[in-house]
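User: I'll paste a sequence; please echo it back and then give the predicted structure.

Assistant: Echoing your sequence first, then the prediction.
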Amino acid sequence: MSYRPPLLHILARRWQDRCLEIREAAQAILLGELRRIGPIGRKQLIDAWSPHLPQDMDSADLGFEDLEQYINNEDEKTVFITAEEDRTDIAMVMMTTRKMVASDARLRHATAIIMLGVIGAEFQKEIDPINSSKSQSSDCVMDVTVVRNTALALTSLLQNQRQQDASKSASPFSAIRRAAIDLMGRGFALWEPHIDVSQVLIGLFELCADIEQQIRTDRGRSISLTAAKDLLRSAKHSLSLIATARPSACITTLAKEVARHVASSSSMSFTQPSPAAIAVYSHVRHQPSSSTEVQTTNTLHNARSEILRIMELMVDKSQHQVVDFIVEVVDIIVHMLDFKQLKDRGITEAFPSIFKFPMVSYCSTTRRLAVGSRVGHIALYELRSSRCQLIPAHENAITALAFSPEGKVLASFSAKDKKISFYQTSSSLLGMLSSTVRCIQSYSTLISDDPNVGKSVRILWTAKKHVILLLGDGSQHKYQI
């Protein structure tokens, strides 16, 4: 019996079908068939569909209506493949092309975006132009123009640019928008060089905040998976995929937006620029606040729960990458946590996962939070007075920090410097005024150059003036001040 390959363009249009069972089946069959046809077949699909990508999304007549209405109205003529024709790659592409020509332009544009988005997201290593030399065949490479146009199309659909044409009955919960959001997350590493990362991330966070607010105010309180809830689920999943694939991009983007808020907002929670804000403060402090910045500030506030979820996900899943941005991570967390929550519960209860890193220490008595940076500085947060200061401490990355039991002394250690230092911290009026931090003692440590020694380092205070440095190889070094 001859094999009849499925109609791939129909499966692509069902990528985010309203019915979850159909959606899952369509995705599984489409991905299975894309793997079966191999690199040559995928290349042929790319060549067949890339001419139908919208060249200008601003003028493209895509709409945001569900694809189902087009599918139901389209005359789908079944095309069979005989055993003699079963050189499946070419036959399948010819069948797809014949079906494609019969469709209207709007549907072809939408299908091309999803088809190329799926291929790009699922076969990134094969089609990434940067890695083309590593590919088994240069014929498998997707042209950079196709990658860029696909990325821009997905971004435009994700943002649902309804303001372009008020006459369009745009639905923000359409299947094609869900597909764009899903594929943006799946293939983010491929799309990243061609998109505005900040625009995409803030757009997703804003979407989550808006829909969650809509669901909370929905009087019906339906427990079914409505279109809004389905889109929210897609947006959350996309953010999780992006955070897992590119934690550095996610962290730096959020840190920059927080820094802009701190630098430009007259009602900022911290009276001084935070450490993450210092890098960009000089570029934004003289710029007038724009409507975009105001909107971003509102998004950060409204989406704080989702931002904290993403931060916790990165801390739990990508510790080795997060550690290089630990100051920025803590800065984002501190600004996203509610001040009342910090006061009532403390940061150890509000966000306990951050203390998996030895270069983060908190004193509940003084409500100070210390974070060691990769450049040797200590960011000291006065959570009681909402202040922060940056302290030069070491020449290289700080490996571990620890407050003394009463919180008056802070010990810091740098494995690359091979030095442990002790800083006395004091403040006036319960921390409402500036704190004074001074180094009172430093010791050179006789440790091995083995990089494993500097891993999993801990500083343990055994008494008011006695400290034990626990190294990664199990050895211990005792110090006193």
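The two ends are 84 Å apart (CA to CA). The first strand starts at residue 360 and ends at 363.
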